Amino acid sequence: MIIGDTKGLHFEVTLSAHDQALGLASMRSMIDKSVVWTDQKGRGVSWTWIDLLEQLAQSWPFLKYEESIPLGASENVTAFLRNGRVASPIYGLEPSVESTREDYIFLRRHNLASGIEGLYLPNLALLREGRKIWVVSAIREGLFDFSATMNTLSQLGDVLATHIGSGQKDERSRQAVDMWHTREPDVEAILKIKLGSKRLITDLVPVGQTIASYFEVQVTGENEHEYESSLLIAARMSETVPLESQRVILEKMRACPAGTVSTYLEQVSTEATAIVPAYTRPHKQGERLAQWARDKFDIASGAPAEPREVLQRLGVSVESVKLGIESIDAVGCWDQRHGPTVLVNLDGKHAHSLPGRRATLAHELAHVLVDRSGGFPAAEVFGGNVPKHLEQRASAFAAEFLFPKSILIDELHQSKNKVDTIKQLRSRYSVSRELAAWQIFNSRVYAELDDDTKTFLKGWMPRGESFFSNLY
C-alpha cells in the first residue's frame, strides 16, 4: 500500500503475516520521486517496525508543534537536520563544532531514522515551519504542506498500530499501541512546546495566569490553526531580546485592534504565491516576487515604490512605535485577534532612518504577500529568531522592489560618470548606501565597472557582512 501523497513524503508498505506483534513489514520511504529508505536492490526494507511506531508516538508532539531550533542551527537548518552540524554562516565551507546535548535531543525528536534499533537507515528528518514543514534527507529536501505531511505520518502510525495490535499481544506491543493512541498532549503542554523556551514560561508569563490566557490562545475544538496566536509566536521569535523589551513588544501587539484580512489582499496573496518559483535560492524568489509586485501595483519602471502605500491599499495598517531596542526593526501581526498590522520600531538599527523604514516596510510587504499562509501564519518579528531563508527572500524582495536591477543596469550603461549616476539613483529611489551597493554588486553590470567605481561601492558595504546580513 502507498501511504501519503506521492508528490511529497510517502511510504510504500507491505505488511507481513509473521511477527505482527513486532510490526514486521517491508517499507520504502520516499520524498517525491527520491527514495530515502530502501534495500540494496531498491526494494522495501524488511524489518520489524515497532521501533518506528514508538518513535512516532514519542516524537509526535514535537513533530506537530515544535518550530524552535537550537541556537546556532538557524543559519542552515536543513544541513542541521541532515547531519547534526551547521555550515559556516559566511562561506559554507567549514563544519561547525559537534552537536551539543540539546542538539542531540532535538535531532532524536525530529529524525524518524533515529528510533530504529539494530538497523542503519539514512536520516529522514522533519521540522515544522508555520503551515509548511521541512522534510529533509541526504538526497532530497523539500518544504511541503504541514497538514498533508502530518496526515501521512498519522496514517502510517495507524497502519502500524493496527498491524501490531492484531498480532499476539505482549507487553511491549500493547504499550506501543497505547502510546500511539495517547500521543496528543494537553493544551498547556502544546503551548510549552510551541514557545520552546523555559525562560519564556517562567519569567514572561505572570504568576496566576496560564500560558493560554497570557498569550490569548483560545482552543475550542480540533482546529490546529486556533493555536496560531500572534503573541505566542512573537514571544518565541524575540526570545533573545531582554525580557522587558519582550513585554513592550507584546503589549504593543495587544493594543492592535482586530481587523479583517481584505478580499483584495487574499486575492493578491494567492496570485503572489502562485508566481513564486518552487523552492530554489531565496534571493531569486524574492527578486521574482518583487518584479511581479511592481507590475501588479502599477509602479512605473522609473518611479520609486512606496511600500507603505501598497500595504495600506492591501488593508494592512502601519504604525510607528518605540520598542527601546535596536535589534528588532518591525513586528507584523495578522491573526484573528490583532491586525493585519505592521509595527515599525523607530529605535531599530535600520528602521530609525527613512531609507531603512522604507526597506523595512518592503520587507514586511513580502511576508504579507506570501508568508501568511506559509511560514508566518500569525506574526513575524523582523530581527528576531526566524527562519533564515524566509528573511533572505523578504530582504531580496525589498532590495529589488525599491531599487530594481533592470533600471540601474540601463542607467549605468548610458552613464559616463558612474559614481555620480549611482549617487543620483540612490537619492531618486531613497534607498540606503548599503542596499544600493549590494544591488549593483549582485547585478551583471558590476563586472563592467572601472576600478575606481568598484572601490567607491565597496566603501558603502559594511565590512565582513554578506548580502543578506545588512541590506539597509
Average pLDDT over all residues: 89
Percent strand: 5-15%
Total number of β-strand segments?
12
The biggest sheet amounts to: 5 strands, antiparallel
Gyration radius from CA atoms, angstroms = 25 Å
Regions with little confidence, pLDDT below 50 for 5+ residues = 88-97, 466-472
What form results from the Cα inertia axes?
A: globular
Helix content: 40-55%
Helix tally equals: 19
Structural class: alpha+beta
- End-to-end separation in angstroms reads 53 Å
Topology overview:
Layout: E1 2-4, E2 9-15, E3 24-31, E4 34-37, E5 45-48, H1 50-65, H2 77-83, H3 101-110, E6 125-129, E7 132-136, E8 141-145, H4 146-165, H5 171-181, H6 187-195, H7 198-204, H8 211-214, H9 230-237, H10 243-254, H11 263-275, H12 282-296, H13 307-313, E9 317-321, E10 330-333, E11 341-345, H14 354-370, E12 379-382, H15 388-402, H16 405-414, H17 418-429, H18 433-441, H19 451-458
Parallel strand pairs: 9-11
Antiparallel strand pairs: 1-2, 2-3, 3-4, 3-5, 6-7, 7-8, 10-11, 10-12
Helix pairs in contact: 1-4, 1-5, 4-5, 9-10, 12-15, 13-14, 14-15
